[in-house]
Amino acid sequence: MIDVVLDGNCEFRAIAALLGFGAQGKDKWMYIPDLSYVIATLYNIILVSLSHNLNMTFFPLNKAPSKESSHHSLLAIGFVNENHWVQIKLKFNCPLPPTSQKWKDFCSECAKTWEIAYAARMKHWEHIDLTFIKSSCISLNEY
């Protein structure tokens, strides 16, 4: 996990830094999940958002994935302490949370192949029992 400045713009800063723009920027506000679709589509990345209330994977809305999964950029952010977004480094081939019905409703036909390409990892997520978590920390190492 990589922390960014706690100033009300942390969601923007975490994603900007993951995209290589640094964590700079003033008065930049974002709202997950709505802008996550825009970010995934604009930068052709997979964006994973993790929190106690909403765990979701965002794929581009209008582009098909490349055939080689090593060319896919997967970035993750996490909402901690009920007020702060941080960068998350996910382990290779870890489980991924599901996409939303909104993505399924609005993605193009060619973009639907993202969900197919990552179906096994999202299915693996379904087997994680998140109800046992009593602390603010979860380790996906065991999954």
Plain-language structure description:
- With 143 residues, this protein is α+β, with helices and mostly antiparallel strands.
- It has one domain.
- It contains five helices and four strands; from the N terminus they run ααββββααα.
- A four-stranded mixed β-sheet has the order 2-1-3-4.
- The radius of gyration is 15 Å and the shape is globular.
- The mean pLDDT is 80.
Features:
single chain; 143 residues; 5 helices; 4 strands
Strand neighbour order, sheet with most strands: 2-1-3-4
The structure class reads alpha+beta
Average pLDDT: 80
Largest sheet: 4 strands, mixed
Helix content: 25-40%
How many alpha or pi helices?
A: 5
Distance between the termini: 18 Å
The ordered H/E elements are: HHEEEEHHH
Tell me the radius of gyration.
15 Å
- Gross geometry: globular
Number of strands: 4
Number of domains: 1
Low-confidence stretches: none
Concise account of the structure shown:
The protein is 27% helix and 14% strand. The protein is built from 5 helices and 4 strands; from the N terminus they run ααββββααα.
